[in-house]
Each structure stands twice: as structure tokens, then as C-alpha cells.
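re: ur question from yesterday

yeah so i grabbed the chain u mentioned. its 142 aa long if i counted rite. heres the sequnce exactly as i have it in my notes:
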Amino acid sequence: MNLGMTTRTGFRNIETQLASEGVIAFGQAVKHGSTEETAIAMAAAADKVVGIAQFCEFDNEENGHIIATREVQVLRKGNIIMKAKEALTAGDELGLTADGTEVTKAATANSKKINGVAVEGCKAGEEVEVYVDFLSVQPSTT
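ran it thru and got these C-alpha cells back, copy pasting raw so excuse formatting
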């Protein structure tokens, strides 16, 4: 499983935050906790996403999750591996499922549109390389 692995060299922005509640899956969208230095898993489409939880070899023993009180590397801009809820084609604009664990096509009902595109095509349920940018103004949810 490669969820949360960053890909390609070049500009990317990664911030270290503290996982403040529950668990965060590798490759899952996160929002700020009670402060900007903390991160918690996205829980609803209305959440303001700040990035994607990056894979961390030190937490690998936690079955693909980062547990509370541990540091989490949050990718704010760059390429990362995520799970696709549906088949995607390279160049598709992206959305996130309500819990932030999978990417969808941006136009899909019940998804949160984000600044992101599929870098490659894939089938539903497969891992896919995506480019995301949470540093720029996020698109409207309408």
C-alpha cells in the first residue's frame, strides 16, 4: 500500500502538525484541530481541508494510521498517492469524499471540490497519483 506517499521531485509544501484527536489514515484529508499547529481527520464535506496526511515510516506499525499525539506530515501542495472512489482519467478535476479518505471527480454529488487533478488514470478502488494545492484559494463548494 502506497497511500500517502509523495511522488515526483520539485516544489511541494509539507507542514509538521500534531495529530490531536483520533487517528488519521495515510492519504486522508485533514483539517486544523483547535489550533493551526494541530490536525484532525476530515469528517464532513463542509470541513476546511488544509492538506493530505503523508506516509510516515515511523507510524507504519499503526496499520496505515497516525495516532493522536504523534506528529503528522501534512502535504499542502504537491503530488501524493490517494485512493480513488471511482474511475478517473488523467486531468480530471478532483473532489474528496465526505470523510476525506478517497478522491472523486469534482462534479460528483456529495464530494468536496478541491484544487487538485488526477495525474494518471485509474479504476475505482485503486491508488492514484494526484496533484493537490491547498495553499491557493480553494474552489467554491457549489
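noticed a couple things. The chain has no helices and twelve strands. also The first strand starts at residue 6 and ends at 7.
anyway ttyl
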